[in-house]
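hey can u check if this looks right to u? its 217 residues, i copy pasted from the old doc so theres a chance i mangled smth
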Amino acid sequence: MTSISSSYKESFIEFALQKSALKFGSFVLKSGRTSPYFFNAGVFTSGDDMLKLGQFYAKSIVDSNLKFDMLFGPAYKGIPLVTTSAVALAREHQKNYGFCFNRKEIKAHGEGGNLVGENLEGRVLIIDDVITAGTAIREAIDIIERNNATVEGVAVLLDRKERGQTELSAIQELEKSYNIPVINIIDLDDLIDFLEKNQKFNTHLKQLHSYREQFGV
């Protein structure tokens, strides 16, 4: 069994750097901003990667003390993430939750519908990777509410903590609109703290400080 250290935020950053999911440099985002760092969850593609991701999600969820009844993963990226999170919660924290995910297309044969897994009911925690504009999460919330379930929160890998179209970030807008918490494994402050402890990242640290001063929330 792979162990996650007590300082799991630093462990996650080291893991992301090792897998090149987290990169430093100059990256043009969808917003048009040039960011000094970029996070790509799409590079986590092996069984070991998913095992570790599940452990990191589970640790952040347990630490949040959030109360919920089941997990939901929005198609498509959320499907493996909700699966590995449920396994890690059961195996390492003895918390056995059902989980559910949606299809993009409604299935006309077999059991039909566009939901797979546990019945979508009760208090639901959504599992996703990174919230950019919040569109996918809003769609997930709509699915959950249409099934008369309640969204209790969202768990993500990274909170960039930067302004969207308003003075709020996309995550803050979600929290305000739906009155729910968004749990993260790391946020921009955690990343800066990590860089401050590692002198080899001095150049990137200055760039991140500047970026946060310009776009941070």
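The longest strand covers residues 98-107.
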